[in-house]
Amino acid sequence: MSPTPADPAVDAGRASQRRRVRVLTLLFVVLVSAATWTLSRDVALMARLAAALPSLRRDDVAGIAALRAAEPPLGAILPSSPAMSRVQRLTSSSRSGCLLVTLGTCSGCTRFDPRPWKEAADRHNLLLVGVADVGPKAAREQEREMRGLLPVVPDPQAAVSSGLHSIYAGRVYYFDGSWRLLWRTEFGQELAPPRELVRSLERRLEQLR
Fold it and tell me: Would you say residue 79 has pLDDT above 70?
């Protein structure tokens, strides 16, 4: 049997498909490389992923549930500590409460942007304050990195972030005037747009009125 003559239209279609596959493959490689480079530059995110992956590999749902179960419930009052006592002293009696940000050991290792939170705090008569797991000198440096928009309280024992089980730096907590924890950014929201999180806070404040 003689071979069937090639159809130029079919050959052209196959060549076009091969070109599309090559382009898509190249695009995928570029995107993966960009993501890998970004993660390698973000020390805090790499650390969070490294810490989370062992439990998530065992059981994603159980791992996330365990992280959330370790957090203090809404309505809780944190145990006293030197850092928390200083936060309370900074929050004058004329304030309606405070927005507390856990900053970890390195403000440059978090994506926290203080500007929208400072604006929200001013609108609602709240103090915006950071607590860092560092000594006084490093805390002052973090204040400068935050452009002076919030005081940063040193907490080298990490009592506040441990008490809150904050999991990642840059997490925001709302305490009312009686120092009850009534709102927080949730686990998994660290990459959410800040203004979206601020809107969530303000909806909660409206409910509490």
Answer: yes
Tell me the C-alpha distance between 81 and 9, whole Å: 77
DSSP string, 160-176: HHHHHT--STTEEEEEE
pLDDT tens for 99-115 read: 999 999 876 677 789 99
Tokens, residue 35? 């993501």
Query: Which residues have CB under 8 Å from 178's CB, separation 6+?
Result: 77
In this prediction, residue 180 carries a pLDDT of: 96
Q: 8-41 and 43-58 helices cross at what angle (nearest 10)?
A: 110
Enter the tokens of residue 183. 């709102």
| Assigned token pair, 143 | 């204040």
Average pLDDT over the chain reads 79
Q: How many residues are listed for the chain in this entry?
A: 209
Containing H/E element for 137? Answer: helix 136-145
Interatomic CA distance for residues 37 and 31, integer angstroms = 10
Task: Give CA 178 to chain center in angstroms.
Answer: 26
Distance (Å, whole) CA 206 – CA 209: 5
